[in-house]
Amino acid sequence: MDLDESQVFKEREGVVFFLVVMGLPLFFLSGISWPMESIPESIRLIALLIPSTTAISAFVQVDQMGAGFNEVADSILIELALAVGYTILALGLMKFGQKK
Fold first, then answer.
1. For the segment 25-52, what is each residue's pLDDT rounded down to a tens digit?
2. pTM greater than 0.85
């Protein structure tokens, strides 16, 4: 995800400004400070595009609730899909940037 941001924002300050502005909304979407059940379904689906959303819930399940691999397998698959998706996006942005 960071490589994608570095392709969109060419100056360091742009990335820092983006992360400062988006930090609090991303924190609320992760489900730590705000219960996921009270977030509307459409926003929850958007939140799945943020890697920390599923990673944090999986970590809490394993660490605090003693969940096994089977209970967090969906979260792991989502994280793997996000990794592949963001890698493809970053490579596409890099290739697009080289054409200019």
1. 888 888 787 778 888 899 889 888 988 8
2. no
How is residue 27 written in tokens?
């924190």
C-alpha distance from residue 4 to each of 9, 20, 30, 60, 79 (Å): 9, 17, 20, 28, 16
Backbone φ/ψ region at 66: left (φ over 0), alpha (ψ -120 to 50), beta: left
Six token digits for residue 1: 């995800």
15 and 39 in contact (C-beta within 8 Å)? no
Contact 1, 26 (CB under 8 A): no
pLDDT of residue 79: 95
Residue type, 15: V
Please tell me the predicted confidence (pLDDT) of residue 4. Answer: 62
Other C-beta atoms closer than 10 Å to the C-beta of 40 total: 8
Amino acid at 3: L
Rounded CA separation 22/4 (Å) = 15
